[in-house]
Amino acid sequence: MPLVRWVVSRMCGALATAWLYRRISMVPSGSVLIVDDDPVIQQLMVVVLQEQGYRVLTADTGTRALDLAKAQLPDLILLDVLLPDIHGMDVCRQLRTEPRLAEVPVIMITALHDAEARLQSLHAGADDFITKPVDFLELRARVASILRLNRYRRLLEERTQRQRAEEEILRRNRDLSLLNEFIVSTAVPLRQASQIEPALTEACRVLVDGIDLKAAQAHIEPKYMVNALNHRFSAQVLHPRMHPHMMTYNLTPSLSMPILIKGKPQGLIALYDDAGREFAPPELALVQSLAGALGQAIETVLLNQQLQYHVNSLETIVATRTYELQVERDRTQAILEALGEAVLVTDADGIISYANPAAIALTGHSHDELLGRSWTMIQGHGEGAEFELDHLIHEHIAAGQVWRGDLRGLRKDGTGYDMELTVAPLFDLHHTGELAGMVSIQRDITLVRAAERMKAHFISNVSHELRTPLSIIALHSGNLDTLYDRLNDERRKHLIREVRFQTALLDDLIGDVLELSRMDSGQLPIQSEALDLGRLLQGELERLQPLAKRKQLHCELAISEDVIVQGDQGQLRQCMRNLISNAIKYTSEGGTIRCECRMLETASVDSEAWPGLGEAGSSHYAGVRVVDSGLGISAEHLPHLFTRFYRVENQSRVPGTGLGLAITQELISRHGGWTGVASTPGVGSIFAFYLPQDSA
């Protein structure tokens, strides 16, 4: 049966080989590396070979060609003789010195037509050559022929290796069968006594007839004991320290033979005869052979036991190490999965092999979209800048250094983000110094950068706003100091009023900054009391009336009676003051400002006239709005108006820090209310806030 199975397997292998030969000859396949510094010729060869179904790689220098060949292992190399960095023949010689590339066919492409150049190409290790200008019909034929022969060669090598493997398997099976028979016959029970009993029985069977024999007893150690019975003869196996007269049967031994284990006597075979006769040389030789065989069997058993002990120990060690590695891997995996920063692991070419959930969330790409792609896909630079940055990073990584820097990232949806990037090398454990890949850690610092820009903008605005009133105060106070006697009373009063006005502006600015700081620190409590919003609004409008008169603005006030809410008077006054002062700032001379306060009902109020009305949680609430005929604001800016430090770019010439609306929204929110805004460029704006009647 084994022979039949072997014949059938060989026939199946032959049929599979024939089928594979037909497939190879029918379908062109394989990868071709084109090495040529002429981009036109290179592109023409790429088009011609890709039309034939080949996978094409390109390189324009000898160094790049060697790196690509080592990384990709092409089936054929088309190599130009004249390259900008290394001569093509030197490249061919280096290819032949690489064990993995030594058998890759090389076709030299040369413009030299003399026999000496061709002979040099063959000496360098080339398999064929093509002269320039390239005949693309000849190129197709040469490439197809070389690749077909190369595939036949590989197939023959595989077949030869398979035959050798089959022969080796048959030989090992034969050896294992013999070894198995020996183990079964001598060492399967793994007991020394099992080898003693057959040896003694055989000795008693073949020894001289006609002698009255006793029962035989045998042992090497007290724990190994066996009796071999025969009607003619008796035999014992004793420990070397045991005296023969201490046997169970008190007989005089006729023959003794030591049992050697590892060259040292570890036991003794003793044969006994009542008549005390002497044994012939053949009988002595038999006993000696039995003693030698028995010693070898016992030694095998001992080695087997020792080997089993080491196997068990090794299995325990392997199981322990495997468990430790599993625990460490799970721990590392858990850390990477839980890490807030995006982590990407790539190979030496920058192809992503691992991405943690933070990287998926940051880039917007799915896990499958990231794996197998170049890690430069997340960089939001132009093609040239991306190449230069990638080259710079690879230089650091190849030198074993860690690269750190800030750059712009690109999400899947096309939006950009600022990231702090750290890239570290990963080296091959089996090849010291050989780069295996790299790990990159990205931290999203978009909000940090935005905060820094906002902070810089705020500092710039605050500095400007502080300098302006201080400069005016310094100027007017200086005039009063130096020109006091020359000024009339009216002029002096005017300068004093200007100083007081600029001081008030400076106080408001500082107050806004301090107010925001107190709100952030939670040190701004609400002193709740019953308030009439209409009176508060009237008071703030009267207070700011001088500012409106300077710009000849027409101010209107519309309030209803009994608009009573619970709240902090100072904080609500500040909210009204912020809205009215903004309206005055952004309304041109001669414009109109209308301030209104009344009780509102959801069903009876126009939501366009009162922006933010849809956020009402009940049907009755108090509303305050300020309507101006000012510059107006574009729709894209409206969602950001209540953000701290935010200012519309085309209105930056108007004094302000961008804090007033943010403070207003925060204070109204603390009273349980909300804000709203509506604006049309060139028409004007409406700013409003709403408070529930039970606000506290």
Kindly list the characteristics that best describe this protein.
single chain, 696 residues, Rossmann fold, Beta-Lactamase, 5 domains, five-stranded parallel β-sheet, five-stranded antiparallel β-sheet, 22 strands
Fold and architecture overview:
It holds the Pfam family PAS_9. GO terms for molecular function: phosphorelay sensor kinase activity. Its EC number is 2.7.13.3. Keywords: Kinase, Phosphoprotein, Transferase, Two-component regulatory system. The protein is α+β, with helices and mostly antiparallel strands and 696 residues long. The protein has 5 domains: 160 residues, Response regulator (Rossmann fold); 113 residues, no CATH class; 105 residues, Beta-Lactamase (2-Layer Sandwich); 66 residues, Signal transduction histidine kinase, dimerisation/phosphotransfer (DHp) domain (Helix Hairpins, Orthogonal Bundle); 168 residues, Heat Shock Protein 90, CATH 3.30.565. Helices cover 48% and strands 21% of the residues. It is built from 17 helices and 22 strands. The strands form 6 sheets. Strands 2-1-3-4-5 form a 5-stranded parallel β-sheet, with helices on both faces. A 5-stranded antiparallel β-sheet has the order 12-11-15-14-13, sandwiched between helices. α3 runs parallel beside α4 and α14 crosses α16. It is elongated, with a radius of gyration of 49 Å. The two termini are 97 Å apart. 25% of the residues are buried. The N terminus is likely disordered.
Strand content: 15-25%
The percentage helix is: 40-55%
Number of helices: 17
| Mean of all residue-level pLDDT scores | 75
Query: What structural category characterises the helix and strand content?
Result: alpha+beta
The biggest sheet, with number of strands, parallel, antiparallel or mixed sense and barrel status, is: 5 strands, parallel
CATH H-level superfamily title of the largest domain: Histidine kinase-like ATPase, C-terminal domain
User: Order of strands side by side in the largest beta sheet?
Assistant: 2-1-3-4-5
Overall 3D form = elongated
As for the CATH topology of the largest domain, it is Heat Shock Protein 90
Assigned CATH class of the largest domain: Alpha Beta
* Cα gyration radius (Å): 49 Å
